[in-house]
Amino acid sequence: MKKVLFAAFLLVSSNAIFAQVNKGQFLVGGNAGFNSSKRGDEKLTSFWVSPNAGYFFIDKLAGGLRLNFTSDKAKGAEDAYTSFGIAPFVRYYFLDAAQKVNVFADASYGFDKEGGDKKESGNQYTISAGPAIFLSPNTALEFALFYNSKGGDLHENIAGDRRNTFGLNIGFQIHLGGGGKK
Questions:
Q1: What is the DSSP letter of 11?
Q2: What pLDDT, on a 0 to 100 scale, did the predictor assign at position 180?
């Protein structure tokens, strides 16, 4: 009897284990980050939160939308400015679904608008990669190194240069839905 119960437990748990990055699943979560950059004499400190929602179109490949909320403050400036944006993204997981730690790459391109009086707009693209540590079969803690390039009226300086930064994101993702192997 113990062997039958153990075999049933393995069968049920193996189905849940394989439900991490499979076709038909949803991905809901986001990341937050902080960086400090310098361009000429200007020093800028940024904080952001980026919730996202996506769908696995094929095994290991998800696509969706990410919202960006950013607060920037220049050294010596009295006020910070806030921008809001939306960016489609694609994400690929390199290892099989049963892994406790998986590796992913993520890319997005989006548009943002300042929340202040000026109403300037900009664009940005981000490429990131790092480990996703699955705390359970459906939840993952993520650490990602990223490269971000921002341009447009909102981000460029007088010379028209884009603001380019490297940094670290910390995120959390929940994998929802069936998505099991058929």
A1: H
A2: 53
